[in-house]
Amino acid sequence: MARFTHWVEEQSGQPGRYLEYIVRSGKNAYEIEHLWANHFERHADEFAHAQEFASYRNRIGGLVLLPKKINASLNDKTFADKVAHYQKENLLARSLHSACYQHNPGFLQLMARTGLPFKSFDEFKKASFDERYVAYQGIAKQLWSLSRLQEAADATA
């Protein structure tokens, strides 16, 4: 998640903060945030079994990176209660909120240039995971494309 977050910010004209994002302990630590709290009963309309829910909840499409203290404070809140807080965080988390798509030319240019299908969500359902996964898959293809890796290798040679 640190690489994804850093890349989106850097490609949007913001300073990348990869070294900040990989801190795993201490007061400036970052953690993986699950967009869904671990409450199967909130999603029983979309999942037949708690195991299926748990597996889906851990998929990359439902994750963002947040400061540890913010992640802990959001705890068991619903997505609808958390999304406003995401707007205050890194660009990848902010992209879940509709305000991210207003007055944010660097991010909008990134979307236009790459075709990454980012969008905001008022609620986050099973289909939302799949939509978000497609955006993350696109980031991965950009990050680890053969041409990009070749460029990086050529630059260090």
Principal-axis shape: globular
Distance between the termini: 28 Å
Q: Strands of the largest sheet, in order across it?
A: 1-2
Overall average pLDDT: 94
Number of helical elements: 9
> What is the N-to-C succession of helices and strands?
HHEHEHHHHHH
Largest sheet, strands/sense/barrel: 2 strands, antiparallel
Q: Residue ranges: pLDDT <50 for 5 or more in a row? A: none
What is the number of beta strands? 2
What class would the helix/strand composition place it in? mainly alpha
Strand content: 5-15%
Task: Give the % helix.
Answer: 40-55%
Number of domains: 1
Radius of gyration (Å)? 16 Å
Spell out the blueprint of helices and strands.
Blueprint (H helix, E strand, L loop, with lengths): L1 H10 L6 H4 L8 E5 L15 H8 L5 E5 H7 L4 H8 L4 H4 L10 H10 L11 H18 L2 H11 L1
Antiparallel strand pairs: 1-2
Helix pairs in contact: 1-8
